[in-house]
Amino acid sequence: MSARLSDYDYVLPRELIAQRPLERREESRMMVLHRAEQKIEHRQFCELKIFLHPGDLVVLNDTRVLAARRFSDDGTVEFLFLEPLGPKRWKCMVNPGRKMRLGATATIADVCLRVEKITEDGERIVTFAQDVDVYAGGSMPLPPYVNRPSDETDAARYQTVFAREPGAVAAPTAGLHFTSEILSEIPHTFVTLHVGPGTFLPVRCEEISEHRMHVERFSVSPEAADTINDAQRIVAVGTTAMRVLETATRNNKLISRQVEPLSGETDLFIYPPFTFRVVDALLTNFHLPRSTLLMLVSAFAGREFILRAYEEAVRDRYRFYSYGDCMLIL
Length: 330
What we know:
A 9-stranded mixed beta sheet has the order 2-1-17-16-14-3-12-13-15. A 6-stranded antiparallel beta sheet has the order 5-6-7-10-9-8, with no helix packed on it. Helix 5 packs across helix 6. Helix content is 16%, strand content 28%. It is built from 6 helices and 17 strands. It has 330 residues and is of the alpha/beta class. The two termini are 21 Å apart. Strand 1 (29-34) and strand 2 (39-44) form a beta hairpin. The protein folds into 2 domains: 5-65 and 143-329, QueA-like (3-Layer(aba) Sandwich); 69-128, Beta Barrel (Thrombin, subunit H), CATH 2.40.10.
């Protein structure tokens, strides 16, 4: 077992971090990892269907990314609005933090807001003087490693074609490769996890077991649970779908594959060793060094195998992170 943060590091040239999506979603490359044989092959995402078997079910996260990024009217403060806490009251992240200390004010859409609290994580609780639709003038909250402002292309492409449940501040990026046509050809169902900013926050504990995940809201409908439980093999699209599926079995005291209809919050942290109850295969993008997502895929495929695959992806010039290529772990 690898329990130290330094065990989940790798070197990535900055030029391999994808800054824009490909012209066509389905043209991404797809590295396929065969766990049983410890074999790696190189394919295209549009070939996904050939790796599916009769009785398989593809499970996707249908969260919709909110245009939650706003700037103060004078352009000096960036806000990422995370969730409403009541009338005119919001939790948000700000940049730079020094401009928004306790009691500080700013204006958005000519409405004044004031910082009434700073949380332990550095998030701000702000109150507006009157109601404001924070999303009306907002833009897509692109990840911090995309070094450019968001534009009209991102409004469509940093969103899955099946997004329908508003609530995320980051995209479930493994789903970005799907087109409506590809989705119509494979058996699938949806769960929901509203991706929060914690997906980008660094792990600061050298002993990874000491790390605590941010809480994220999720739901599994009764219809989805029935469909999942009737399937022979579950293919999770993305680490978010995997966390929902594995969370939805944790109330069961028996080691069982049965997924329960459930809504609530999850802070499930998946890292080696972890007993997977539901997911048999995973489609995922390439993840940041030392991140909880790299730990998750290491738990699923083995740390040594994953790091070998990442080294090969770097050599073969795969595109990394949110707008990058993908990996299918079988």
